[in-house]
Amino acid sequence: MKTAILGGVLFALGIVAALTGIISGPDLSALVGRVAPILGFVVGLTIVADLAAEAGLFSWLAGAAARFSWGRVWVLWLFVVVLATVCTVFLSLDTTAVLLTPVVVLVARRVGASPLPFAFTTVWLANCGSMLLPVSNLTNLLAQHTLGSPAPLTFAAIVGPAAVVGIVLPLVAVAVRYRRELAARFDAAPVEPAADRGLFVAAGVIVLLLVPALVSGVAVWIPAAAAAVLLVVAFAVRRPGALRLGLVPWGTLLFASGLFLVVEAAHSLGLARLLGTVVGTGDSFGALVRLAGGAALSANLVNNLPAYLALEPVGGSTLRLVAILIGVNIGCIVTPWASLATLLWHGRLTGLGVEVPWKRFMIAGLGLAVVALPLSVLALLYL
To answer: GO biological process annotations for this chain's record (predicted)?
Structure first.
């Protein structure tokens, strides 16, 4: 609700900017043409993720991981690492934060393990692990356009070294911090069957087909929309009561649209020139760390999406654009509001009775970001 209200305010300000000429007609038309497919992808993928969870797909995967972990918490954790990484890379960071977090926390509780290493794994992988493919993060879809719309695998080759650092470092941090909790053992339980086997199979097949379609080079909104339609049809036949208007992420759409309009207006008023003096120029290691650090600071002050939009015009090269992504993706793990996924993650944990104080979260995130940003830039330059 708060996201929708803030989005409404931002959208209204953007409309005022368009009506008063701050955003010109051609600029507004170009902005709509750029962001409409992205927002369409967000809608399609959100519906797919919600209905797949409703069909029991994520719960079954987590239960199967517990069953085949040989009674060892660290093996279960590794299964969760793989699941969270794949989920983030192919189905976006919000899917991991919103749908996977409660599942893995409940599985951890069921086997008597501490939920904290699992909770931190999901939120850090959701953010830091969201660089590899355009579909992993909305900021990546924006950058893909600016980079000349490379194919997904070409995009992955460009950002790959930095993305690997973003995945590995959080895992090292969790493994070291929670080494005692991860060394525990438990008694494995049988995997609970899905309530509706037909819907479960349909969801599994559709998601399985969606993953390669998202990296096929076709505009990502097309397979996301097709998968959403197929799942909606399946639920309309077998469980129509699960279909509701709330499946469409209205608040997120309004928030993102408002951000796009307001940042476009700010660019028209000279925001890019101001930021250019702060983050500097050049493709050297020092220049890129300065840019990534500025992007991370901006993301943690406001949010990673407006931070990327604000800094994009001062990119100017492939290396600098990737440095901005490093800052707004890997570096947005300090403040709660730096990423919408983090706020959603914390809300899910609170609903489950898992307490993670923001002070503790911010200190841990700051320590991780300080190490991850320069190492990611090093990987970008030399690997």
So the answer is: response to arsenic-containing substance
